[in-house]
Amino acid sequence: MSDPSDVSPEEQREIEEERAQRLDPDNRPDNVEVDNTDRDFDPVKGQFTDTEDDPELGPFADPSEEDG
What we know:
Elements: H1 9-23, E1 41-42, E2 47-48
């Protein structure tokens, strides 16, 4: 996994702009609903448990731990 501190401020700005565009409700097709209620998410791996492990992600701090 790459170190987040290796990302330049310009790259970080571009990432944030792309993220904002993807998440903007105005960019979603009409009548689309995302429902992940039947899926389990592993916050340490940063992935849903029903997907193949991505070695580029995680591990992340466990939010259920005192120092997480």
